[in-house]
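Try this one yourself first.
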């Protein structure tokens, strides 16, 4: 099972719960509460990886390597009892949570040391309990949540106590030691305590780029011997890595250097555990809870059908391959970076800008120019949609000056129709009094602007290829159709369509995540992308209302 399949399984469970919600009797308050708790489990589920180790072991560098970013600040000495967590956010920021006040505060990432170090916040006078870093990294968007605990062996005893107290919240913990001085007394003591928790341990020996091959072998043998004393019957694997090399290799696309860094092997094992053991257990338990909930509802054909859906879902995810990793998913972010920062359709934007410029001048011309007023009347005014757009920018005075000639003309036309002998022709003649896109001045501007914008985009795509495709905005579906027809290059058109498919899929996931968090009454967990997903999804499918609502020239 991969990350997308896992998330889609949760979405499917949410759909079953929504269908079941219509069968809950209104007076059964306990069933409504039970239903909400099931949604809460789905909304709050994520893979919690707790990173543990002494200061200067490279914990933060390792997280940077796994995230393929250098944004997490390294080399800062943490403050007593402050946990630093890393989760997904549409933009980079830090949220500070406090001991004695309900309101959180937001700070830029570069200001973090001023709040979580002894130098910047002596004695934790600010009363901070947790700093939550939000980054737009795809692995975090898919549900991973990293926790960087205060260093073990600190002169401040509370640091170690805080780390041990946080362990029950972990799905797995990563103990980071290094070749400089592997497995200190504090780390060994912590490992003995951690094994009792039942959480899966991952042992990482960092900085193997600083020692020779012979030294690596010696340190690995020593570490295995030390761990074997209290891990029975089998010592967990030890991962030898260079987080510095791993990050640089990811950023430069150096596959050979990445492999020698040891990071891919660690990632594969982390994903295998979290996507295999952890996710399967979570889905199985959640489906079992949903099944029990359905049995508590009044029997009906609908409830029986939903119970069958749950059983089918369990069979589906139990048969999936449990060994895939994030990089085998074929995630849209792999092929098309920065999808989280997409602006709305650039073609719509260009058309809207030209329409605005035309309208702002046109409404003024109708006031000062009698010839323009007469031309306006002769053309029948504007189409109904653009008539309201004119009204939105014109003053009542401007409308009262500009429209009377049109109303006079229509009055004459109606009188002529009323006095005619062939009333059966009246509906057709009346329909001709309403301007179409060939007669409406704004439709004419819109059509011209649209052709120009599409042509300019096609030129850019042909000139710059893949780079231009990756720089495209979230083109709306009406304009994707026009682009594809205008490109006249099969491979280029296919690339544009694949990118559009990836964006549609991403927006659908954002919408589903928001819906689950809304059902769980956990909207505060929603990212900015999820909060705005409804509007962004509509814009992607239909485009801007002022651009795509009027008749289009065929």
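Now uncover the answer:
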């Amino acid at each position: 099972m991969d990350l997308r399949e896992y998330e889609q399984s949760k979405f499917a469970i949410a759909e079953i719960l929504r269908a079941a919600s219509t069968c809950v009797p209104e007076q059964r308050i306990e069933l409504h509460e039970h239903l909400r708790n099931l949604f809460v489990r789905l909304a709050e589920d994520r893979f919690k990886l707790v990173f543990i180790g002494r200061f200067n072991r490279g914990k933060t560098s390792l997280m940077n390597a796994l995230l393929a970013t250098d944004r997490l600040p390294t080399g800062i000495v943490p403050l007593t009892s402050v946990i630093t967590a890393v989760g997904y956010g549409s933009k980079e920021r830090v949220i500070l949570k406090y001991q004695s006040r309900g309101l959180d505060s937001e700070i830029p990432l570069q200001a973090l040391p001023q709040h979580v170090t002894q130098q910047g916040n002596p004695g934790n006078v600010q009363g901070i309990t947790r700093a939550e870093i939000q980054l737009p990294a795809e692995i975090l968007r898919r549900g991973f949540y990293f926790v960087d605990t205060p260093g073990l062996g600190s002169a401040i005893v509370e640091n170690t106590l805080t780390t041990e107290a946080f362990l029950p919240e972990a799905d797995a913990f990563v103990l980071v030691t290094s070749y400089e001085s592997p497995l200190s007394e504090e780390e060994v003591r912590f490992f003995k305590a951690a094994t009792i928790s039942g959480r899966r341990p991952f042992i990482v020996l960092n900085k193997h780029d600083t020692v020779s091959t012979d030294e690596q072998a010696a340190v690995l043998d020593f570490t295995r011997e030390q761990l074997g004393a209290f891990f029975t019957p089998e010592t967990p694997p030890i991962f030898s890595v260079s987080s510095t090399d791993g990050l640089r290799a990811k950023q430069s696309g150096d596959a050979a250097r990445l492999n020698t860094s040891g990071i891919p092997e660690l990632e594969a094992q982390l994903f295998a555990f979290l996507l295999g053991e952890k996710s399967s257990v979570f889905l199985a338990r959640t489906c079992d809870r949903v099944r029990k909930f359905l049995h508590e509802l009044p029997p009906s054909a609908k409830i029986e059908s939903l119970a069958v859906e749950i059983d089918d879902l369990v069979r589906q995810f139990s048969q999936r391959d449990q060994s895939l990793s994030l990089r085998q998913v074929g995630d849209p972010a792999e092929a098309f970076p920065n999808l989280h920062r997409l602006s709305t359709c650039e073609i719509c934007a260009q058309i809207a800008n030209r329409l605005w410029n035309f309208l702002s001048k046109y409404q003024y011309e109708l006031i000062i120019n009698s010839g323009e007023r007469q031309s306006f009347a002769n053309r029948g005014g504007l189409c109904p949609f653009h008539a309201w757009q004119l009204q939105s920018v014109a003053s009542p005075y401007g409308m009262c000056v500009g429209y009377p000639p049109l109303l006079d003309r229509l009055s004459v036309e109606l009188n002529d129709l009323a006095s005619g002998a062939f009333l059966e022709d009246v509906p057709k003649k009346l329909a001709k009094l309403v301007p179409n896109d060939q007669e409406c001045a704004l439709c004419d501007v819109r059509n011209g602007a649209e052709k120009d914008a599409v042509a300019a985009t096609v030129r850019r795509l042909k000139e710059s290829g893949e780079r231009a495709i990756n720089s495209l905005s979230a083109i709306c579906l009406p304009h994707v159709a026009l682009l594809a027809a205008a490109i006249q290059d099969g491979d280029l058109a296919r690339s544009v369509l694949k990118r559009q498919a990836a964006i549609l899929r991403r927006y659908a996931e954002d919408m589903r995540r928001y819906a689950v968090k809304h059902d769980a009454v956990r909207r505060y967990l929603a990212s900015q992308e999820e909060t705005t997903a409804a509007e962004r999804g509509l814009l992607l499918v239909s485009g801007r209302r002022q651009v795509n609502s009027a008749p289009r020239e065929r």
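Discussion: The longest strand covers residues 128-135. The chain has 26 helices and nine strands.
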